[in-house]
Design a protein that fits this description.
Layout: H1 38-42, E1 45-47, E2 50-52, H2 54-64, E3 72-74, E4 90-98, E5 101-108, E6 111-112, H3 117-134, E7 138-146, E8 149-150, H4 156-164, E9 172-175, E10 190-193
Parallel strand pairs: 5-7, 6-8
Antiparallel strand pairs: 1-2, 3-4, 4-5, 9-10
Length: 208
Amino acid sequence: MRSSRAWTRSSGSNVHDLHSHIWDSWADETGSIGKAYGYQLGKKSIYKEGEFDQVDRVLYDLKHNPTSRRILTNLYNFDDLHEMHLYPCAYSMTFNVSGDTLNGILNQRSNDMLTANGWNVVQYAVLLIMFAQVSGLKAGELVHVIADAHLYDRHIPIVKEVIANEPKPAPKLVVDPDIRNFYDFTVDSFRLENYEYTPLAAKIPVAI
């Protein structure tokens, strides 16, 4: 597996290397989704303290200036939208340290509630945990703001099936406590305990 850093460095990263089919509908023949998401996080900017990409800037501020009200990322770069295969849906994350606790606010312009909401919440909650752990903080609250939360008509029968299923107990996420460098995290650093689910009768179609 590539390190976390590799995915924040260029638009040429092959999304198929993630072994996830989430981006298949927007990836070109090289597996690139253009100047979106990872590309934007990896673009470097000049600050008075030096040159940082967005991820490293967050890490720097959490360590050196945790009371700052300017700890955030923004993926909605208007200059690059024409080179993105999909405009960012989740486009900004704001971090706030209260005492020894790291909280976050995720802003999302649009959310396909059946297809995407579950993994959007999980991925940003895990990201909050990762940032907190390497910064010597506790993971606190994740607030998720969605401007347009929607269900597509083709998804309604599947949503009814999900609602009718018997609820399962929540699993427990276990994160390797020895990781102190953000870029040392790998897939093997995470484990879900007691994960239970009910298989769906049909595959969820992605709306594009």
